[in-house]
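Sharing a chain and its predicted structure for anyone who wants a worked example. Both blocks are below, sequence first, tokens second.
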Amino acid sequence: MSKDITTLKEYSLSAVKESQSSLVMQTSDLSKELQTLKGRFDENKYFMDKTIKDLLSERELQQARIAKLENELKEVKTKISDSLEKKETADSRDNSKEASATTAETKEAKTADINDPLKLYDDAHIDFKEKKYAEASRKFEQFAKDFPKHELLPNAYFWAGESYYADKKYEDAILSYDAFIKKSPKHEKAKGAMLKLAFSFVEFGDKKTGKVLLEKVIEKYPNSREAELAEKKIGEMLSKNNAGGSASKTAKKKKK
């Protein structure tokens, strides 16, 4: 009997030890799993914090870029305004000279055109197609002056710009495209007008302003044909700058 009790005690003690050992192992496993989860949490938190910081930095960069573009566009508008004043002064002188030299036949023709805006507009288009750009631009300008409330007024400004651009009179083209954009910013030709306004500045020699406007086209009309052409033009300008820089360095080396 005493022996059985001793055996039972030993069995119970062994069972308790096994149970304790199992609990220790489970606790150890849970501790490891907890450490793993904590590590993942810390890693996710790090990446989330980093992503938030990156997004904030990107936003700040975008805001700085927009502010820079707005300042540069203000400069563009100032330049256009100055050019417009010069052109108005020059036009006033030219009109004075033209008025003194106008014949009776020319006066009759102008009177007929004033009475028929569509004829004047169509004649200007015909001149443009026949590459008589000086005549075309004059007639489109006359249309804009004589019929300021006509539904074709925006088109007249646009085609006056196209005529000047084709005739390589880039300063006049700038003024016409700018007038078009100001009066009809939502017109279907607005994208093309802004692109050609940028091209006109580049051809006029003001590449900085041209580049600003090209970037504006890309920003305002993404995924458009005009944006694609703007990106291409910027690429060409950068290539020329890089080529010019390389040539300059080569020339300096030869002098040495």
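Comments welcome. Residues 76 and 82 are 10 Å apart (CA to CA).
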